[in-house]
C-alpha cells in the first residue's frame, strides 16, 4: 500500500565511482578525468563524493585535493585503511573541502583476519579503536567500515562497532564486500546492529553492496527498509568483480516507488543519462544493451504488440519516462516483429503520409528487409519508402567512399555524396589522424549545416568473415542532438551511412517546421 500520509525520508547518495568504481580492472582514471566526472556528479545532486584513495598514488591525492577545493557544495570523503599514514593523507587531501568525512575500513571476518591481516580479533578491535580515535582529532565525521561484515558473526561485529562508536565514529557502514548476502539477511543485520550495539542509536548508517550475485540493488533497498540513510553506489554499477550497487538503478527504484517506500533522494534525474555516458566513455566500459535505466534497449521496443500499446499510451509498457532521465526518445525500433501501426508511425515522424495501398506495399518490402537483418535503419526505411512511391526521400545519399590508411601518416578519405533535391553529385576529400576523423571531415563539407560529431558506438551484429558492423552516430546541430544508425560489412562505410542518416534526420526536423511553427506534411503520392 502506498504511503501518502507522511513526509518521505531522505536517502543520501554516496558515490564511490571514482574510488571503488575505479578499482575495476581497466577502469583507471587520470586526475583530470576524475575531476570532470566529479563535476558531473555534483551537477547530478550527489550528496557525498568519494574521489579516490589519497595514499595510493600522487595522482589520486592530487585529484582528491582539487575536487575538495573546487566542489564546495558537496561532501567529500577521504578513504583510508586503519593506518596513520592513510589517515594523514586523507585528512590532508580533503582539508579544503567545505564539508568532509574520513572513511576508514578494516577487515572483520575470520577468513580475512586469518589469511589477509593475520591478526587476532583483539588486535583488530584495538586497531579500530586507536585509528578512529586518531582520525577524530582532525575530522568530526568518521565513517567506519568492518570489511566483509556479512561474513562476520554478530558477536565480533558488534564488538568492533561498539569500540569505534566509543571512539567517535559517526557513521557505520556495514558492507557486503563480496556480494554474499541475501536481501532479507542484509536488512536483518542492520536491524540487529541498531537494536543490539551499545550506542547504535546515536550514529547514522550506510550500506555498501557488491553485485556478485546480482543482488546489490535489492540488498541496498533492504538496508533502506531497515533504516539506513546513506547508500554507496557507482555510476553504471562499475566496480571490482561484478561491480557495486548501480546508482541509476537504485535512484530510479526509489523515484518510481517512493510513495510505497516512503523515501526519496536529492538526485537530479535528468542528468542520469549524461553521467552514465560520460563515465562509460572515459573509462572505456561499454554499457550492456539490457542494462536497466541507461542500456540501449531499456526504453526501446520492437514487438508489434508492445509498439501498438505504447503508441496508444506510453504507460502500457513503460513505468518511467526516459526523457525525464535525459534519454532521447526513440522508443520504436523497426525489426521483423514490428507491425503496420509502428511502421506508419515511424514514416509519419518524417512528415510522410502514405495511402493505404502504399503502406501495404511498403510493409511487404519492409518485412523482406527485416528478415535479412536484425533491424531496419532510418536510411534503409527511407530507401524503401522511395522505391514504394518511385521517389527519393532522403536529402543526401552516400554514393561512394574511399579511405587510404597508413601507419605513419594521416589518413586520407574521399566521398561522393548525392544531393537528391538538386540531382547533383559532388566529391569531397579530407584527412584525419584516424579514418573515421577523415571521413567525418569529408561529410561535414557535403552537408549545408554546421554539424558537430559528438558520439560513436560500434557493434558487431554477427561473426565470421562476413560479419556485419553497426555504427550508431550522434551529431549536434544548433544545440540539438540527432542520432542514427548505419549497417554495413565495412564498419567505416557503416559510420559514414550513420553520419549521413543523422544529418538527414536533422534536415528533416528543421524542414518539417514552417516559419509559423506548424508542421509540414510531405505527401508521398
TrEMBL record:
EC number: 2.3.3.13
EC class: transferase
CDD domains, per database record: DRE_TIM_IPMS (cd07940)
Pathway this chain belongs to: Amino-acid biosynthesis; L-leucine biosynthesis; L-leucine from 3-methyl-2-oxobutanoate: step 1/4
Keyword Acyltransferase: yes
Pfam families: HCS_D2, HMGL-like, LeuA_dimer
Residues annotated as domain Pyruvate carboxyltransferase: 11-273
SMART domains (alphabetical): LeuA_dimer
Secretion signal span: none
A molecular-function term among this protein's GO annotations: 2-isopropylmalate synthase activity
UniProt entry keywords in alphabetical sequence: Acyltransferase, Amino-acid biosynthesis, Branched-chain amino acid biosynthesis, Leucine biosynthesis, Manganese, Metal-binding, Transferase
Alphabetical list of NCBIfam families matching this protein: leuA_bact, PRK00915.1-3
Family: Belongs to the alpha-IPM synthase/homocitrate synthase family. LeuA type 1 subfamily.
Protein name: 2-isopropylmalate synthase
Amino acid at each position: 500500500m502506498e504511503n501518502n500520509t507522511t513526509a518521505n525520508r531522505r536517502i543520501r547518495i554516496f558515490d564511490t565511482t571514482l574510488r571503488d568504481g575505479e578499482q575495476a580492472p581497466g577502469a583507471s582514471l587520470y586526475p583530470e578525468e576524475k575531476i570532470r566526472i566529479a563535476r558531473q556528479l555534483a551537477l547530478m545532486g550527489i550528496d557525498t563524493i568519494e574521489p579516490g584513495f589519497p595514499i595510493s598514488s600522487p595522482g589520486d591525492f592530487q585529484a582528491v585535493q582539487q575536487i575538495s577545493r573546487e566542489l564546495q557544495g558537496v561532501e567529500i570523503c577521504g578513504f583510508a585503511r586503519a593506518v596513520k599514514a592513510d589517515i594523514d593523507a586523507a585528512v590532508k587531501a580533503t582539508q579544503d573541502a567545505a564539508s568532509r568525512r574520513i572513511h576508514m575500513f578494516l577487515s572483520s571476518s575470520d577468513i580475512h583476519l586469518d589469511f589477509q591481516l593475520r591478526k587476532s580479533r583483539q588486535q583488530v578491535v584495538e586497531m579500530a579503536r586507536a585509528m578512529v580515535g586518531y582520525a577524530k582529532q582532525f575530522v568530526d565525521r568518521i565513517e567506519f567500515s568492518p570489511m566483509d561484515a556479512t561474513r562476520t558473526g554478530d558477536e565480533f561485529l558488534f564488538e568492533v562497532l561498539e569500540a569505534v562508536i566509543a571512539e567517535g565514529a559517526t557513521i557505520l557502514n556495514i558492507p557486503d564486500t563480496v556480494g554474499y548476502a541475501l536481501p532479507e539477511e542484509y536488512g536483518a543485520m542492520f536491524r540487529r546492529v541498531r537494536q543490539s550495539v551499545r550506542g547504535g542509536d546515536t550514529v547514522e548508517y550506510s550500506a555498501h553492496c557488491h553485485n556478485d550475485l546480482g543482488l546489490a540493488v535489492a540488498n541496498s533497498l533492504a538496508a533502506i527498509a531497515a533504516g539506513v540513510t546513506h547508500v554507496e553506489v557507482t555510476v553504471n554499477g562499475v566496480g571490482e568483480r561484478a561491480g557495486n550497487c548501480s546508482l541509476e538503478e537504485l535512484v530510479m527504484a526509489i523515484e518510481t516507488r517512493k510513495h510505497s517506500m516512503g523515501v526519496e533522494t536529492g538526485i537530479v534525474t535528468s542528468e542520469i543519462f549524461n553521467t552514465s555516458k560520460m563515465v562509460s566513455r572515459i573509462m572505456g566500459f561499454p554499457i550492456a544493451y539490457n542494462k536497466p535505466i541507461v542500456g540501449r534497449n531499456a526504453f526501446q521496443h520492437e514487438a508489434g504488440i508492445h509498439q501498438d500499446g505504447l503508441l496508444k499510451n506510453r504507460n502500457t509498457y513503460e513505468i518511467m519516462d526516459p526523457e525525464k532521465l535525459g534519454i532521447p526518445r526513440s522508443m520504436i525500433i523497426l525489426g521483423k516483429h514490428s507491425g503496420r501501426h509502428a511502421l506508419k508511425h515511424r514514416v509519419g515522424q518524417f512528415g510522410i503520409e502514405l495511402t493505404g495501398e502504399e503502406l501495404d506495399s511498403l510493409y511487404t518490402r519492409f518485412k523482406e528487409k527485416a528478415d535479412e537483418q536484425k533491424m531496419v535503419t532510418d536510411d534503409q526505411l527511407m530507401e524503401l519508402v522511395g522505391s514504394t512511391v518511385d521517389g527519393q526521400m532522403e536529402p543526401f545519399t552516400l554514393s561512394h567512399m574511399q579511405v587510404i590508411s597508413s601507419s605513419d601518416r594521416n589518413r586520407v578519405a574521399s566521398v561522393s555524396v548525392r544531393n537528391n533535391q538538386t540531382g547533383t553529385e559532388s566529391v569531397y576529400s579530407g584527412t584525419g589522424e584516424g579514418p573515421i576523423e577523415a571521413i567525418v571531415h569529408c561529410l561535414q563539407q557535403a552537408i549545408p549545416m554546421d554539424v558537430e560529431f559528438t558520439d560513436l558506438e560500434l557493434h558487431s551484429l554477427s561473426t565470421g568473415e562476413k560479419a556485419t558492423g553497426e555504427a550508431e552516430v550522434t551529431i549536434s546541430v544548433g544545440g540539438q542532438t540527432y542520432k542514427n544508425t548505419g549497417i554495413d560489412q565495412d564498419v567505416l562505410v557503416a559510420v559514414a551511412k550513420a553520419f549521413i542518416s543523422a544529418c538527414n534526420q536533422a534536415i528533416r526536423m528543421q524542414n518539417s517546421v514552417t516559419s509559423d511553427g506548424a508542421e509540414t506534411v510531405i505527401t508521398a503520392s
